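Support request, please re-run this one:
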Amino acid sequence: MNLIDRITVNPKVCMGKPCIRGRRLSVDFILELLAAGWTYEEIQEQYDLQREDILAVLEYAKRIIEEEKVYRIPIEIK
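Re-run finished. Output below.
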């Protein structure tokens, strides 16, 4: 299974947020835990996940950010 296949988007689950397949754990929730300093092991133990689930969250986030476009808006100060 491709890592990204572990992430699903279903409008009937978690209000359509991307989640770990078969779980009601959203990508942004897992990212929030990682940003707060949780280790992979702590997340795995607390939420009964596999390491590949967490890696899939990171891969999903990476792909979203890769597609982001940033535009410079010039501001004139008078």
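The CA atoms of residues 29 and 43 lie 11 Å apart. Helices lie at 27-35, 40-47, 51-67.
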